[in-house]
Structure formats: structure tokens, C-alpha cells
Write a structure and sequence with these properties.
alpha/beta; 28% helix; 7 helices; nine-stranded mixed β-sheet; 210 residues; globular
Length: 210
């Protein structure tokens, strides 16, 4: 996705910032932990059930100096920072992650893995999507694999991706929010029959926080 001239992002020193805020991580391994979210605009995957569709068009978000978001991270006192999107790996993340690391915070990435990696991360959550499958590097870098389950066929998709991650990678099945009531019984039974998998739910939605 080429929507900005190379000099507009200044090598990653400016990024299309959709929003940033301090909240509680609601999904996956770090569920329940306070974390500062830096959400970048732009996504070329386009899942029908995405709950951040407002981020898809990067042209809505002017390239913003990374110092602005990092300054708010520092002022918040947060110890953990989640870089998410959209799809954050559309952009060079080296300058942002280096600046965050200098502040002593843990840096978590949430990605579909569909683009080459840049930047340094303490934790990578890989959430693969059928529309643009992960690159091989993403499987190697993943600390957790979080597969969204909307229908029975997604269990096979989950296993196909699990076959590529390293043995230490944590595996999570997460019901798509609008299908959760319908799919939860099947997800529970699948996890019981395949105990390498755990279940992730979107706890922040139950808590009614961003």
C-alpha cells in the first residue's frame, strides 16, 4: 500500500497515527494488563468483521511525528506499549520502537504478519488472515498465535497456521465478537480436544473500555 511519498514518513519518524490511548489489554496472553495503544492507520487486509474499519484508509491520518505519541506514553506512566492498526507493518517501525525502548517500556506488536518486519519488539502477537497470509518471517517471530474463529472452517485454518510457528509459541482461539455466542460451545469443545490451544475472549468489550 503506497499512499505516502517516501519523504512524507521520513523513514518512520512520522507515521499515520489513527489514535493513541492508555487502557487495559483485552485479548490474548497479556489480557488484563495496562497498556498504552498506538494505533496506526492503513490496512490492506480488509476483514469483514474488523472492529477498526475506521483505520483502513491511511489517507485519513496525517503523518505525525513519533515524538508526539512517545511523549504521551511517557506522561502516562505506562510500562507496556501495543503497536497495532490497521496493519502496522505497512510502515518502517524502527525509529518508533527504538524511541520507546529508550523509555524502558515493553513493546508489543499486533499484526497479520502480511508484510516484512521492521523494528524491535518484546512480544509479537500474530493474528493471521486468509485474505493476505503471513510471511514466513512472521511465524518465526510470533510469541502468540491468535486466530479469530467465525465458523467451523476456521479450526482448520488455525491448525494450518499453528503448523508453522515455533514450539514455544502460545496458541489462542478467539471467537469473532458477533459470532461468539454461536461459536463458543464449539470453541470450548475444540480446545478440550486439542489442549495446546487456549481461548482468548475480548475482555475489554465486556468491561466496556476502548
Amino acid at each position: 500500500m503506497e499512499v505516502y511519498a517516501e519523504n512524507a514518513l521520513d523513514g518512520g519518524r512520522r507515521l499515520p497515527l489513527a489514535e493513541d490511548f492508555y487502557t487495559i489489554q483485552g485479548e490474548g496472553y497479556h489480557s488484563g494488563c495496562p497498556a498504552y495503544f498506538i494505533r496506526l492507520g492503513g490496512c490492506d487486509v480488509g476483514c469483514s468483521w474488523c472492529d477498526a474499519k475506521y483505520t483502513w484508509n491511511p489517507g485519513r491520518f496525517a503523518p505525525t511525528p513519533i515524538e508526539e505519541a512517545v511523549g504521551r506514553v511517557e506522561a502516562s506512566g505506562a510500562r507496556n506499549v501495543v503497536i497495532t492498526g490497521g496493519e502496522p507493518l505497512l510502515y518502517p517501525l524502527g525509529p518508533l520502537t527504538e524511541m520507546l525502548a529508550q523509555r524502558g517500556v515493553k513493546i508489543f506488536l499486533e499484526t497479520s504478519g502480511s508484510h516484512p518486519f521492521s523494528g524491535r519488539f518484546d512480544w509479537v502477537c500474530l493474528s493471521p488472515k486468509r485474505r493476505r497470509e503471513p510471511q514466513p518471517e512472521a511465524y518465526d517471530r510470533a510469541h502468540e498465535l491468535k486466530v479469530v474463529v467465525e465458523e467451523e472452517a476456521d479450526f482448520e485454518w488455525a491448525e494450518r497456521n499453528a503448523a508453522h510457528v515455533n514450539e514455544k509459541c502460545l496458541l489462542y482461539l478467539q471467537p469473532e465478537w458477533n459470532a461468539a455466542e454461536r461459536m463458543m460451545p464449539a470453541i470450548v469443545e475444540y480446545a478440550k480436544a486439542h489442549p495446546r490451544w487456549s481461548i482468548s475472549i475480548q475482555t475489554h468489550k465486556y468491561m466496556r473500555i476502548p
